Amino acid sequence: MLTVGIDLGTTTTVIAIMKNGIPQTIPIDSGRKTTPSVVNYSKIENNNEILIGRKALSKMDYAHTVFSIKRNMGSNNKFFEKSPEEISAEILSYVKKIAEQKLEESIESAVITVPAHFSDIQRTATKRAASLAGIKVLRLINEPTSAAIAFGLAEKANGVYAVYDFGGGTFDFSILRLVDGIFQVLATGGDNYLGGDDIDNAILEYNVNQYDIVKITESEKLRAKLLAKTMKEQCNLEKLVEKECVIGGKTYLFRLSSELLWNLSEKYIKKTFKIADQVFSDAKLSHNQIDGVLMVGGMTKMQVVKEAAKDHFKTRIFDNIDPEEVVAFGAAIQADSIVNKNRNTLLIDVVPLTLGIETFGGGVDKIIHRNTPIPTVQTREYTTYSDNQTGIKFHVVQGERALAKDCRSIAKFELKGIPPAVRGTPKVEVRFSVDVNGLLNVSAREKNTGIEQNIVVEPSAGLTEDEMISMLENALKNITQDKERSAYISAKMAAERQISFWESIINDIPEPEQKRVENGIMRLKEYISNDRSESRDILNTINYIDDIVGHFLDEIISKRLSKNPIKIDEVKK
Amino acid sequence: MYHTQDMSDKNYFEFFGLPISYNLDETSLMYIYLERQRKEHPDSCTGDCVSFFADNSVAELNTAYQTLMDPINRAEHYLKVRRVSILDQLPSDFAEEMFNMHQKYDSIKNESEKEKFLESLRNKMKDILSLLHNLKEDDLEKFRKYTCLLRFINSFLEKVELNAYSRD
């Protein structure tokens, strides 16, 4: 069973594995290192086969093709009746299948990279996509951090470095401290809707306006956009690029000069620097206090970007590692390190966006600030604002804006059953925890009575639970080897049996063990009500409680037997 | 919904094995923190430790580190450890000056003048910080006063920055 690293990118996907301590890309798409993240759904013509990557591109059937699905991760949007999770899962299944053929061994688990600025909802969606593809997610790690790992190990670098990650669809900027194999993220920032795509659109728009083209169909637009992308790449080597483009039966000559390319991309590049400087200020560092900037992502291959970065940061620029492979390399290294419990590399990442609760009046009470290292647990106490109020509603939001309505809505829940009391007396403790994957868990507890509610943070926008279940069922039909899922189901059933047993005897367990068992059960319930839990965690917790209870079991049983002696005639029945 | 402050009863100076003093060596704190991460992080936890216990202990480690690395949080934590409550109202001799700060900022129309004003506040914070560093350990009354002032200016700056962020 193998473990790999996957960079599921907006425009391209890369899969890598560790071989003899060195990360290597597994060539998937006609022997190439990168696979375009493109899916073609013209099933009838393709014998019911969905085409992925270059095969999908070469079909030139833009009316049935999905591009840049990553930009829709975590949304409700559907394409050809498929959700972004399902479409991403097609890409993941495809690279997994081909990689398994190449390696002649099956792939069990992976570390998957996500943009550092991805929200909780987008991370959850990515994890779901992987489980739909039958891949167990060892960890979600942030793309710039992943690049830093690959870079740090290759260069044996120590010091403070920035990662400038400008990809097809997203921009991330992180500053990290590297100390003997520890990668400590100091601050991060980014924009999920800023990438090469925007520049391609600008090139297209410019040319369309030049010729006053008013009528252009969707598929013509997609084709023209791909053409613009090619022109942008060629413009890196040539001063002037000219290509013919057919729109509405007419042929137009599209042009792009290096000067024009700069004019069209300047706005976007400047925007990346603005974000970068915010990150510098968050890390309380200035440009000259870092040891260099690592260039990552397809866009950093462009001369205009490289030169602008040199001008802006006025520090050493590292562009010697292939910017398209480096993220997957880091993921492969991290996957290997997690599986082998390697203590030489350690990653300390941060929460990318502030998490908080909407306050009375529409503001945001910030609970976990951006750039807080993970894992983290923060609690806050709230109380009622009117007499005899029995419920408190909470709205969890993510973002930096002052008003809750301007932030991303993550979840809404209500803690009910608070005993009627004078306002201000109930104490409701809200607990936010973010795990090493950057995923959020929220619980609320009334401290006087112990009434508690755990909230598995489900996307407010995104799939409903029913949709998720049916998706999982379908996936299970297709992927018979989804071992983790079945292990999870059986662990969950075991846990449910155990809990009802423990609860029946808990009053007979002396303190302080009783409290420990209670806490253990609480935790276990949290795990089994959470679709993202892993069977390993459930089983570990069962064992933990079992060990405590085990000491008292004989005593409890004999006590019960003596209190309620079994009647002979009952036994006969 | 009212908001009441969360109070943990930990002494983070002891937690890191450091002397209870506002003046601490940030570089050695960083190394202590990183070494403990290496030992306690869930990724390094093998066999006999359950990952959620490791998660919780590292979460505490992270909170402790963040508290001590931030000069204002550290000041407030220091007061708590010394059993001095944090002032929740500005001392009267500063109240007027601080109140004027809001008014003054709002009355400035010119962007670069505004920025200059904010810069002067940032410098003021730096001055207060160096004052804190040089205070005698038992001058807790002054310490408390300056900490309150720092928190006040800092929240003002944060609010201004947040509004700038929201405008984008």
Describe the structure.
The complex is a heterodimer of chains A (573) and B (168). Chain A has 573 residues and is α+β, with helices and mostly antiparallel strands. In chain A, strands 1, 2, 3, 4, 8 and 9 form a six-stranded mixed β-sheet that branches. In chain A, strands 16-15-10-11-12-17 form a six-stranded mixed β-sheet. Helix content of chain A is 38%, strand content 25%. Chain A has three domains: 2-195 and 265-348, Nucleotidyltransferase, domain 5 (2-Layer Sandwich); 355-456, Substrate Binding Domain Of DNAk, Chain A, domain 1, CATH 2.60.34; 482-563, Substrate Binding Domain Of Dnak, Chain:A, Domain 2 (Up-down Bundle), CATH 1.20.1270. In chain A, helix 5 packs antiparallel against helix 7 (258-282) and helix 11 (483-505) packs parallel to helix 13 (535-563). The model of chain A is unreliable at 458-482 and 564-573 (pLDDT under 50). Chain B is an all-alpha fold. Chain B folds into two domains: 12-69, Orthogonal Bundle (Helix Hairpins), CATH 1.10.287.110; 92-167. Residues 1-7 of chain B have low confidence and may be disordered. The A-B interface holds A 179, 182, 184, 337-338, 341, 343, 346-348, 359-360, 365, 372-385, 392, 400-403, 406, 424, 427, 433, 435-436, 523, 536-537, 540-541, 544 and B 1-6, 31, 34, 37-38, 41-44, 46, 50-52, 55-56, 58-60, 62-63, 65-66, 162-163, 165-166. Strand 20 (376-383) of chain A pairs antiparallel with strand 1 (2-4) of chain B, so a sheet runs across the interface.
Question: How are the SSEs ordered, and which strands pair?
Answer:
The complex is a heterodimer of chains A (573) and B (168).
Chain A: E1 2-8, E2 12-19, E3 22-25, E4 35-36, E5 39-40, E6 51-52, H1 54-58, E7 65-66, H2 84-103, E8 107-114, H3 120-132, E9 136-142, H4 143-155, E10 159-166, E11 171-179, E12 182-191, H5 196-210, H6 218-234, E13 240-247, E14 250-257, H7 258-282, E15 292-296, H8 303-313, E16 317-318, H9 326-339, E17 346-348, E18 355-358, E19 364-368, E20 376-383, E21 392-398, E22 408-415, E23 428-434, E24 440-446, E25 452-456, H10 465-478, H11 483-505, H12 513-528, H13 535-563, H14 568-572
Parallel strand pairs in A: 1-8, 8-9, 10-15, 12-17, 15-16
Antiparallel strand pairs in A: 1-2, 2-3, 2-4, 5-6, 5-7, 10-11, 11-12, 13-14, 18-19, 18-21, 20-23, 21-22, 23-24, 24-25
Chain B: E1 2-4, H1 12-15, H2 26-40, H3 51-69, H4 71-81, H5 92-107, H6 111-134, H7 140-167
Helix pairs in contact in B: 2-3, 3-4, 4-7, 6-7
